[in-house]
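Hello support,

Our group uses your service weekly, and this is the first time we've seen a run hang past the timeout. The protein is SURF1-like protein. I'm not sure whether the cause is the sequence or the server load. Input pasted verbatim:
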Amino acid sequence: MNAVPASATAPAALPRRRLLGPAIVSLVGVTILIGLGVWQLERMAWKQALIATLTERLAAEPVPMPAPATWAGLSREATEFRRVRVTGEFLHDKEALVYAVGSGSRTATGGLGYMVFTPLKLADGRLVLVDRGFVPDADKAPEARAAGQVRGPVELVGLMRWPEQRSVFAPSDDPARNIWFARDTASIAAAKGVDVPVFYLDLEAPPAPGGLPRPLHLQPNLPNNHLQYAITWFSLALALAVIFFVWAFGRRGSDA
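Update from on-call engineer: The timeout came from a worker crash unrelated to the input. Re-ran successfully.
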């Protein structure tokens, strides 16, 4: 029996080996693109749930703020955006300025400025941080907005909020200048030497005398473009697969 010369099988095997590398690269690319599309669908579901929660809780009547004895057991999922009412006295000498970043869920700031975070002293002596609202950069000094530094007990309505995740691009906080770049209750409390719960209150009412700080009211109109993004990623995955198969069949034809 005569052996088949190696040169007879080489032409058929060589084109397949030439396709292996591009096939692997294309498969990895398609997998990544499909994964990005699925991730956007998951983000869409999360955003829809967030909008529904925000809409429901912003429309609810304010209830008394949870008692301090329950603070340790509170969760973000159960309390975020809950409207509450509480009475206390602001400790203006402990206020902190948090750089204001634009958001589609808030009324516009109108320019560069800061959110004023001030501890509110409750009747039992406990403290809770309150985001009193926005002040322009030119009015960040307390003496520039003296009318808004209200004294004595105040009854207010606000939303329960939880600290935001710090962006990797955010600068480091500057306690020496009383400026923070994230709504981080623990960091603010440590710098001010106060003991506060992890949540804070986002003030709705009453407005400050003189108009500053100005509360930036949350609105349930968050952008939700994740379906569009998902379609884009899936389309790119399909396009990459089609391009590879067209190229591969063309290459096999030229090598035949």
